[in-house]
Amino acid sequence: MSEEAALALMEARIDLKPLRQGAVDSLCGFYAILNAVRLLAYPDKHVHPRDLKELFRRGIAILSSQRHLKFTVSWGLDPDPWNRFFDRLLPEIEDVVGFRVRHHKVFDAKAGLKPSKVARAIRHHINLGRPIVLILGAAYDHWTVIAGSSDNRLQLFDSYGYCWINTRSLTLDMHLRNRAHLLMPEATWAFERLPDPAE
Asked: What's the distance, Cα to Cα, between the start and end of the chain in Å?
């Protein structure tokens, strides 16, 4: 199953175009979720644009009920509000797209993870066909989706148009200023599509 899922993820990244956020909004955390779900749905559970609009409406209603909509549109979602938002959105996703989604923490701890080990942990999930939803702190300060990897690059499926990041630019240590992309364990999730109960 994992080899098949990995191949589907690679094909999805090539065949689909990511949903793009507006030029002046900060909804990248929401768009990253929607883009990851679209990758998981490929190729057999195409998510129709009307279903994406319905999911978007439901997500906006959740942000509003959490009294976080105005802040999110202007400034984005930090990890804790993103996690609370995702927990509420997940049943809505499953209701609309018709399959179950599980999210896995990619990193358990910050201590001692060098860029090569950070990239290895990410590649492990990519090789299982699991897109990674994460916030790239520091240079971008932006939620995105990692959907592939090559030698020294991680390929993005991104709402703002970013295409890739260099694996040597990653860190989990906020004191390392020479790294362009700060990752946070509490904001780095691998999404997995669970098999249908009948399968």
From this structure: 12
